Amino acid sequence: MTSKKLGIALVALVAVLLLVAPAMAGDYGKTVIKGNTTFIGESGLNINSVFLGTENTLSWYSSGSKPGTDAPSSVITVSDPTNFYVSPDVFTGKTGAWFNGTSTEAAFYVQKASLSVSLFSMNSSKEITNKKAITNDDIAIRVNSNLDALFARGIRTATGIGSGIDFYVETPDGATLTKLFDKSGGSSNLSAVKPNNTLYWLPAGTQTGVWQLLQKDYKAGTYKIYAECNVNGMKDNLGTVTGVTKSEIGTLTIDKDTVTITADKETVVRNNDFTVTVEGAPKTDYVIWLSGTDSYTNMSKNSGYPPIFVPNQDSVTPLLEAQIELMAYKTGANVSDDVPYATDCVTNEWAVKAKTGSDGKITVGLMTDGGTKDAVYTIRTAKVVSPTKLSDQLYDTVKVKVEKGAVTITASGDGSYYLGEEVTLSGTNTDTNDVYLFITGPNLPKDGGILTSPQDYVNFSRTDGYTHETVKTDDTWEFKWDTSSGMTLDAGTYTIYVTSSMYDKSGLSNTKYDTVSVVIKKPFVTATTSASTVAKGDKLYVRGTAEGNPTQGVAIWILGKNYWNGITNNNQKVTETVNDDGSFEYELGSGDTANLAAGQYFVVVQHPMYNGVFDVDASATGSNSVEVTQQAKGTTSATSQFIIWGTGKLQGSDAAEALINSINSPDIDDTYYKLTFLVEEPWIRINSIGDHYVGDQFTISGTTNLAVGDDLIVEVTSSSFQPTQKTQSGEFSGASSTVQVAEGTTYNEWSMDVDASTFKPDEYIVKAEAIEADSTATTTFNVLKGTTPTTAPTTAPTTGPTTAPSVAPTEQPTPKPTASPGFGALIALIGLGAVAALVLRKD
Predict the structure, then answer these.
(1) Closest Cα partner for 778 from 682, 833, 702, 679?
(2) What pLDDT was estimated at residue 813?
(3) For residue 318, is pLDDT > 80?
(4) What's the pTM?
(5) Residue 103 — very low, low, confident or very high, per pLDDT cuts 50/70/90?
(6) What domains are defined for the chain?
(7) d(CA 145, CA 200)
(8) Pick from 323, 405, 324, 402: nearest CA to 367
(9) Contact (CB, 8 A) for 127 and 140
(10) DSSP 661
């Protein structure tokens, strides 16, 4: 708005809403009668006819108010009703009915103008605003507005810019057009359009092709279309307000009538999908097909077939065999001559009809699988001219290469396995949806044996003639190979093959494959006991390793005179679970060994081997006895071998020998490991201590048949310990400690360090007592007054016996030197008794 116009607007505001309309504004519908609609921004209106008598005020009531009864929300006085301005300063937010004074009948209505433009294709009858059109299309233009109420007020000056809604078209070069060539061969004027409804088609209210996109008249590019309204000075007064005095700018991209087809991938690994995009005329039918594939006549998963169109796609229609037989794409050739013949003679998977969207594009998916032949394919599209003809000019092609994928295989672990273990085979397959596995090796079928039954050759004609696994959606696969289930493999090196299709070793050139080598080893079991000799009341552990993943664990047989460990297990053999690393541990508790007679015991650790079953077992006979049974390979029942418990049982070594002979049978695949251990009465020995002097630091040690880790209480007390008078100091010297048994060379050993710096010269008693077993040993030594001699004593300490006694030996005290002080062991015991009596008396 110019400064002159701004000055006029300000003067009008001061003059109570009077404004002289700008001279350039169109004079249209100036006279407003009762019940008409006016629009904010109009000026120069004559509203005389809406007043009653000399009344010159207008009233507006907010929503919910009752005109004529309630007080108005706003009242204005009109000075010159022949030059009325619908000022935005007054009427914004106060749209709707305005009343003359206190009248209850509306004088006129005030609205805010709305204005927009839409473009439609006459070929598709679809809106294409801001989209693409093809040359030779006819475009209809529609104005969407509420200004039809303005043009219903009547005409004064009906011509010229500003006397209606004016439309403009800007070319790609920036020129502005006010007329367009239409389908009649003439031109349509886009100025002073006066719609008579809210959705008005240019130029005369009906949907005709007002704009014909002939290539000679309109070159390709993007055109801008918009409308403006300056009727009664609206645009001059309000300025350019989008959606009010000027519509939003719509665009139309004009393109030549061409077609292109592109693929999202140049190369596709089969078993994956890909897409092609056709770009041509909007809302137009095109046929897309796999050109040059008519030679694919004997199609199977092994011989291969072309990619197929994904079914059930939006705006894509599969074509029947009968349809493509009539659909010519060039002189003398139909689509049916260019694709494979439908296997069911009806449905065709290699030709479809697709309709482009309003933007002229459509994307169509194709799929491949493991049976798709690896080759270069030509996908062709052509515009549909009629139900029996495709354009021989408007077509395009694109090439896509389909190639085989890759197959991989790995084996869990280090590639070396004991027969009976579960081996996880895994890998990837980007070629097909399935993998097939077979094995080769010493004395197996040369073209491959079934993985789960290696001696049987692979036969893809039988459902049980091969090993198969489905590939997951992430292209990975996994198969758990149980080598304990029906395996007849010997120890050795084998090769496992994985293929992407049904081929054995003789057909590897026709498929993708990979291999992995595995070493099969014979399972075994080893074991040790925690000690070769166990004292009664001590624990004994049988520990070992059982390779081959025995799911039933291992059986632990312990046999001795009148003893079998199964009698405490409900007359059943004892089994122990094997850990993931192959280790196991069986505990013979202290309560068990405490009840064992001294003597030799035999341990047999049994491994179930390949079939995972203990073929040698224990079974109650029902007559208070238990027998050992044997079920040989190929038999359905077990046979008795010997009685292990009850009347007629074999004893100790005889039972162990009979058990081993049963396991050693050639018809039994179980294996074993044998051990022995001795049970003795517990004993403790104290090595010779010798004389020591006050202030010496020395070690008291000994031997024992107690288990490593057992605790001993070792006490050193003065033999002269006795009650004292209250006036005496009551000094006492000695030491006490709990020590653990440690592993020794011949026997287990124990020791305690002694610091004699606080000892008094005296005879001392040493007592070593077991906590977990019933065994005690004692001895004495002297502590002398003076200092340690500079030369070592000539008497060497006594070592333990070379063999363990059957009962704990009784230690004799070492004779006391004549110069040693003290009263002897008897006096010490008397002193202890006196102290006890004194304590009791005090209590």
Answers:
(1) 702
(2) 41
(3) yes
(4) 0.48
(5) confident
(6) 3-111 (no CATH), 115-255 (2.60.40), 260-403 (2.60.40.10), 410-437+449-521 (2.60.40.10), 525-680 (no CATH), 684-835 (2.60.40.10)
(7) 8
(8) 402
(9) no
(10) H
- C-alpha–C-alpha distance, residues 754 and 689, integer Å: 11
Query: Distance of CA 309 to CAs 290, 303, 645, Å?
Result: 9, 19, 76
Distances from the Cα of 791 to the Cα of 102, 194, 217, 782, 794, angstroms: 141, 138, 132, 18, 9
Answer yes or no: is pLDDT of 696 > 50: yes
Least Cα distance to 240 among 229, 231, 250 occurs for 229
Q: What is the pLDDT of residues 30-71, one digit of tens each?
A: 899 999 999 999 999 999 988 877 678 999 999 999 998 899
Average pLDDT, rounded, for the chain: 84
Residue 461: name the closest of 640, 302, 353 by CA.
Answer: 302
For 564-623, the pLDDT digits (tens) are 999 888 889 999 999 988 999 999 988 888 889 989 999 999 999 878 889 999 998 877
Please give the DSSP secondary-structure letter assigned to residue 326. S
- Closest by CA to 747, choosing from 532, 539, 538, 540, is 532
Q: How far apart are CA 120 and CA 134, in angstroms?
A: 12
User: What contacts 223, CB < 8 A, 6 or more positions away?
Assistant: 169, 170, 171, 172, 251, 252, 253, 254
Q: Which two tokens stand for residue 505?
A: 């070793």
Q: For residue 140, what pLDDT is reported? A: 92
| CA 565 and chain centroid, separation | 50
Distances in Å between the alpha carbon of 136 and those of 177, 281, 542, 769? 19, 11, 96, 116
Query: Three-state SS for 351?
Result: strand
Question: Does residue 225 or residue 8 have the better pLDDT?
Answer: 225
Nearest to 350 by CA among 290, 299, 310, 401: 290
Each as own residue / partner, the long-range contacts of residues 86-95 (CB below 8 Å, 24 or more positions apart, any chain) are: 86/38, 86/39, 86/40, 86/41, 86/42, 86/43, 86/45, 86/110, 87/12, 87/13, 87/17, 87/19, 87/40, 88/40, 88/41, 88/237, 88/238, 89/13, 90/17, 91/40, 92/40, 94/60, 95/40
Q: Is 261 strand, coil or helix?
A: strand
What are the pLDDT digits (tens) for 766-810?
Answer: 999 998 788 899 999 999 997 766 554 444 444 444 444 444 444
Distance (Å, whole) CA 804 – CA 809: 10
